[in-house]
Amino acid sequence: MKDYSLAALMITLLLWNTTDLRAQVDVRKSFQKRSFAVTGFSGDATVAGQLTEVLKSDVRLSGYLALTPAADADFVLQGAVRGDHGGITVECQVTQSALKKSVLSKSYPGSAQDLRRLGHAIADDIVQAITGQRGIAQTKIAFVLARSPAVKELAVMDYDGHNVRLITDDKKISAHPRWSPDGRKIIYTSYLQTFVDVLEADLYTNQRRRIAGFPGLNSGADFSPDGRTIALTLSKDGNPELYTMNAVGGDLHRLTQTRGAESSPTWSPDGQNIAYVSDDRGSPQIYLIARDGDEPTRLTVSPAYNTEPDWSHPPAGSGVSPMLAVTSRVGGRFQIGLYDSATHEVRPLVADGTDNEDPSWAPNGRFLVFAKTRNWRSRLYLLDVLTGEQVELPAVEGGASEPAWGPWPGAK
Amino acid sequence: MRSKAFSYTIILALIGTLSLTGCNAFKKKSPSGGAGTEGGVPPLPQGTDIAGGSRPIVTGELPHGQFVPVYFDFDSAKIRPSEMSKLESVAAAMKGNDKKLVIEGYCDERGTAEYNRALGERRAQAAREELVHMGIDAGRISTISYGKDRPADPGHDESAWAKNRRDEFVLVAE
Which helix (H) or strand (E) segment is A324 a member of? Predict the structure, then answer.
């Protein structure tokens, strides 16, 4: 802990140096995607064609690469598929055109039945090789799939909207999924037993266990970054308040005591603080509290209604700062914004006259997934915060909402 | 005119300072008063310190329709004086027996899902608090918030929304 504190102090002092702040501004402003061409794969035409489609999609979604014809490309992917059905091997070559230098030369064993997974692994390696940054092509998104206004199930899909798989099939209401840091479990709000409980689903064993089933509301559960603590909303002692508890059970601590409702906790990257919603002053705003319940402080002042904060946890060395994404209501419509601590305002990112709600950060701290409701139908969208680009994910029958972007695969 | 990146860097620096020193760098006098400015200020919450009653055993769907729902204003969990007589009917039905009551709190479809779950709970608790004042033991009353789920009226207009901002009351055998 001492070494971390010293490093944090040095980083903080470094950032307060105005020269370094200007340098940071320059880097952000000059963000440029590298041009990339997927020329194709030799070998079985069907496999090659499907793989090419997955890779092109991943390149477009990567945020770092722009798909161009080979003649214009800084980097070119060429490959070969060995085998045609069942077990295959895909050989990939990525060459930097100008220097005629290989930046990636790798063989990928896999299955012709699982080409999307193979393609995503290749795409992430490409991003890593060219930019040094980790790609998001192998990440997942959990969300609420509405069958009807009275039946909502939890589902998980690939980050690009493919491979939707149900996690619950209770024919009741499940809501507010949140991932454990190791990606093995999802905690969520469940009406399986009529009352409002927090349950935990193990994605590997399909087992479920109850985390909180106190009288009243049990909801809004969120894992701390180290996975050891859960912050959640309970109303067992009166109106809904913020609590923490041990992830394996017990050690319940109450953090807040107000006349209003607290809800929607989200942890800071270092696990020392929690941002959350309170309507103690009339309309809901975002507050900050230390994990031990030290004096809560109001963060947002404007606009009048701010809820559902999500705190990003970008990897160290990625050059991305932690940020608080928020849902705001302005003029009766909902928008996604970023909290600005200098002004206590929320600066809009997505404000288009539809209802945009429930932002959730990708583990790279640069992309958000959120729900857009248009004509009372909800769909999920990806947003590249750096460029402002939005990508509409494939529609889910009945509607998709409350997305939660999962951690890096293989996370601890 | 500060660029976005400048502000983001400020956020990181402030967060770094906050977590490092333990002292709250954000701590300053917050503006006072209720914040709502869109078409009226939401009332300040009344809150409740009444602890939740134990859950009754429930099998299957809870039956509805025994009592008239109590309705709420937009963004509010305050029981309107005009709704009190409905609560008196519920209280009367609970006297002289040991039955338990489940109060279900609901919101209209506008608003984010999780905050609405908390608001629905405040609505259910507001009714419970009144029933306690009417002499009903708090331990007999449990609450379920459905947030904006399970609307009474699936429409997307003011008349539907008004019917969805409600508490429903279900009497169950002990």
Answer: strand A324-330
Q: Are A231 and A189 in contact (CB under 8 A)?
A: no
Per-10-residue mean pLDDT for chain A, 412 residues long? Answer: 47 34 32 91 95 97 95 96 89 96 97 95 97 96 95 98 96 98 98 96 96 97 98 96 96 96 97 97 96 93 95 90 96 96 91 97 97 96 94 94 96 68
Burial label for A378, CB within 10 Å (0-12, 13-18, 19+), is: buried
Report CB contact under 8 Å: B115, A284.
Answer: yes
Q: What's the rounded Cα separation, in Å, for the pair A286 and A296?
A: 10
Any chain B CB within 8 A of the CB of A262?
A: yes
**Chain A residues in contact with B156 (beta carbon < 8 A):** 376
Please tell me the total number of residues recorded for chain B in this structure. Answer: 174
Q: How many CB pairs under 8 A join A and B?
A: 251
State both tokens at B56: 């009754």
Cβ contact A305–B38 (<8 Å): yes
- Given phi > 0 = left and psi -120 to 50 = alpha, else beta, which region is A304? alpha
Provide the pairing of β-strand B100-106 with B141-147. Answer: parallel
Question: Does 2.120.10.30 match the CATH number of domain A140-405?
Answer: yes
Could you give the angle at the alpha carbon of A310 between the alpha carbons of B72 and A383, nearest 5°?
105
- Map out the domains of chain A as residue ranges: 34-131, 140-405
Distance CA A192, CA A336 (A): 31
Q: Tokens standing for B23?
A: 């002292």
Domains and CATH numbers, chain B: 50-172 (3.30.1330.60)
Q: Which two tokens stand for residue B86?
A: 């409905």
CATH architecture of A34-131: 3-Layer(aba) Sandwich (3.40)
What type of residue is A93?
Answer: Q
Contact A218, B99 (CB under 8 A): no
Alpha-carbon distances of A337 from A286, A326, B17, B79, rounded to whole Å: 12, 5, 23, 33
Contact A339, A326 (CB under 8 A): yes
Residue type, A364: N
pTM: 0.88
- Prior bond to A303 cis, omega within 30? yes
Q: What is the largest CA-CA distance in chain B?
A: 69
Token readout for B2 is 């500060």
This complex has an ipTM of 0.90
- Give the model confidence (pLDDT) of A354-388 as tens digits: 999 999 999 999 999 999 999 999 999 999 999 99
Termini Cα distance of chain B: 65
Contacts B31 to A, Cβ<8 Å: 301
Find all residues with CB under 8 Å of A315, minimum gap 6, and list them: A134, A363, A364, A365
DSSP helix/strand/coil, A368: strand
Instruction: Name the burial class of residue B155, with classes exposed (0-12), middle (13-18) and buried (19+) by CB atoms within 10 angstroms of its CB.
Output: middle
Contact state of B54 with A215 under an 8 Å Cβ cutoff: yes
Using CA atoms, how far apart are residues B25 and B27, in angstroms rounded to an integer?
5
β A87-96/A377-384 pair status: unpaired
User: CA–CA separation, B90 vs B131, rounded Å?
Assistant: 8
